[in-house]
Amino acid sequence: MTEVRVGLIEFGKALNDSVTLPGLGELPGGQVSIGRAVRGARARLKRADRILADNLRLGIMVRKKFFSSDLEPVTDAGFLKDVFVAVGRRDLGNGDALELYTDDRVGPDLSGQDGVAQVVAPAYDQLTGFHVQVLVREGVLRFGALTALSRGGQPMRVLGLFGPGPVEELPAGQPGTVLLGFQCDVPPMAGDALTAFHEPSHDHLERREGVAVVHGLNDLGNGSVVAAVEVPEGRGSVFTVGTRARVLRPAGTTFNERSTVIASDLRILSLATGGVAARTNGGARTFTVGLAFRDLHQNDTIEAYVPADAPVLAPPPVAAPAPAPVALVDVNAASGPELARLLSPEQVAKALELRQRQGGFPDVEAFGVAIGLQPHEIVRLRKRATAGRVALRETGVRQLDI
Question: Using alpha carbons only, how large is the chain's radius of gyration in Å?
Fold first, then answer.
């Protein structure tokens, strides 16, 4: 299995939480915080430390036009750009994220069927892509269902279901319209069968324990490696002996960052903090990890995870509580000395002058662009700063896209 993580869309960071798409309703808005978002990409829904759903698809992706409230379809969105998407879920909210990935060899389970519909008439719209009129022949067709056309192509999600108004499902014998967006590798035709596949119910698929970046290696010569690792700033990680781990190798630049999963289903064999063996890292941000995997490089990321069906490990020993999180600095209200914790004196002076002149900043990204920070500096700043709500003066100019 070769999986490549190509991007991350985080919801709650866009200038607008949602937009209304005619004929479809509200689409949630997110910001591309890692890599790029490509229309049609596979996606996982991540909420806090849980993976709630997999095999989603970026079936529709739109942006607001510059200097306008009109919407336009986009096939690709880069780092720090705002997008509005449809993936077959209605519950995307602030704090959620879509982890975008490609994987040509491993697909969803298509062994069970929930329903079969016959395509009566296909149609195409420039903004929302393909939609088809169908008649359900067997079972039931539901919003968000994983489907496939009889003539082949990649599995798709039902992005919208209408009969004639928006509905959650279409039972056997009922006609309706299915929105498929831009997922269709094979254009639908009249007479095609659209099969909906069964997916078992679950609370979550996986729990992400945390990540750590490799900074040093010691090959023990017996097929295993001990790695000195550090938890990235602003992240929390709990590593425990016996849990699973995967190794990701980064590639690309800040504007097109991606990571390849080069190993999965490894086991954490040992942990040590301060040179003392332990069952868990106990909140420590620097520690060592032992893995039965020798192809480990500096700057690789170790991701600890627990599948939903994994047996529960014995609880680790009680450790000292993790340090309290550092309070975020509000760039719209902080004093000069508070801003000096984040910026150089020249940048502080410029920030105070701009804030006085324009009344504040819509978000941390706009603040970073205004004072001249580089993209990687803006990424670090997001973990240490926030932008309180302000009433900005109308300038007629939108936030600069990087």
Answer: 24
The two beta strands, 301-307 and 276-278, are unpaired
pTM of the model: 0.77
Q: What is the pLDDT of residue 358?
A: 85
Residue 186 carries which side chain, given as an amino acid letter? V
The tokens for 311 are 């047996």
Instruction: Please say whether the beta carbons of 95 and 390 come within 8 A.
Output: no
Per-residue pLDDT, 324 = 58
What torsion, rounded to 10 degrees, do the Cα atoms 4, 6, 11, 16 define?
A: -160
* DSSP 3-state of 90: coil
Q: What are phi and psi of 178, to 5 degrees?
A: -115, 125
Q: How many C-beta neighbours within 10 Å does residue 340 have?
A: 14
Of the candidates 179, 182, 208, the residue with the CA atom closest to the CA atom of residue 194: 179
Q: Residue 165: how many CA atoms within 13 Å on its side-chain side?
A: 0
Q: Distance between CA 395 and CA 382 in Å, rounded?
A: 24
Closest CA relative to residue 194, chosen from 115, 89, 109: 115
Helix (H) or strand (E) holding 335: none
pLDDT at 392: 54
How far is residue 309's CA from residue 328's CA, in Å, rounded to a whole number?
37
- The type of residue at 377 is E
DSSP structural state of residue 280: B
Of 21, 183, 177, 5, the residue nearest 88 (C-alpha): 183
Q: What residue type is assigned to position 146 of the chain? A: L
Q: Residue 175: helix, strand or coil by DSSP?
A: strand
Spatial separation of the C-alpha atoms in residues 26 and 60, rounded to whole Å: 12
Instruction: Give dist(CA 400, CA 362) in Å, integer.
Output: 12
DSSP label of 110: -
